[in-house]
């Protein structure tokens, strides 16, 4: 059973889309992208479990399964027709999973730096060692039960924004309170608990796909490349001067790129009942 989910919408355009935010954020992270595309999209965003105003994961099963089920429930609320999906970081891993497991419901999928490391590890086992070396401070803080130190290390690795001590105290507390979400994501993002790498799975995602990355992100090129090699119809783009938090720090840039991609996809047919 999925927890209660909170969602909000940005824009009032005729084309519905689903947006899935990154770890330690909330649905409001899509406000900038939604505003930039508000005349062509109605962007439906929801809070992941343990985030924003959604309920908490109950600790049963796999966290990623719960997040994916919540996304499906939001799609049910939007309507039965296939829709465009965009995801960022962890949210992009959910978007990818929806495209693979529910291709009939996805018209197009756009992903900004999905943190699905499993295919990069499968292609190059040395990637796992490099990633572990880069995140040793974060892992040590989690192991020691120091959530605040772990959140500080996570922000240093992924935030590409203001230093930790300059972030408002309520935001720092919000991130600290949710930092264990990263640990609970590991079965899927590192070890592919969903089985997405099984033969034939990626072939199911036949819709147009867009993979975006910031040029300053340390792991994006290799991870995006491993995913791109497996998707049947994918376009890959790198944004100069942008880091991992691109949808939040550079929403206009991300929106322009996503909009150009959407122009290439087929618009839905509207059938009026007699």
Architecture overview:
By secondary structure, the protein is α/β, with parallel strands linked by helices. The chain has a domain at 7-124 and 193-263: 3-Layer(aba) Sandwich (Rossmann fold), CATH 3.40.50. The protein is 42% helix and 15% strand. The chain is built from twelve helices and seven strands. It has helices at 31-36, 63-78, 90-101, 118-123, 126-134, 136-143, 147-158, 169-177, 180-189, 220-228, 246-249, 251-263, and strands at residues 7-10, 15-20, 41-46, 83-88, 106-112, 209-214, 234-239. Helix 7 (147-158) crosses helix 8.
CATH architecture of the domain at 7-124 and 193-263: 3-Layer(aba) Sandwich
- Strand arrangement across the biggest beta sheet: 1-3-2-4-5-6-7
Total number of helical segments?
12
Q: How many beta strands in the DSSP annotation?
A: 7
Assign the structural class, choosing from mainly alpha, mainly beta, alpha/beta, alpha+beta, or little secondary structure: alpha/beta
N- to C-terminal distance:
38 Å
CATH fold name of the domain at 7-124 and 193-263, please?
A: Rossmann fold
The proportion of residues in beta strands is 5-15%
* Unreliable parts: 267-274
Q: What would CATH call the class of the domain at 7-124 and 193-263?
A: Alpha Beta
Computed Rg: 18 Å
Provide the residue-averaged pLDDT. Answer: 94
Helix content: 40-55%
Order of helices and strands: EEHEHEHEHHHHHHEHEHH
Largest sheet: 7 strands, mixed
Per the principal axes of the C-alpha atoms, what is the gross shape?
globular
CATH homologous superfamily classification of the domain at 7-124 and 193-263: Alpha/Beta hydrolase fold, catalytic domain
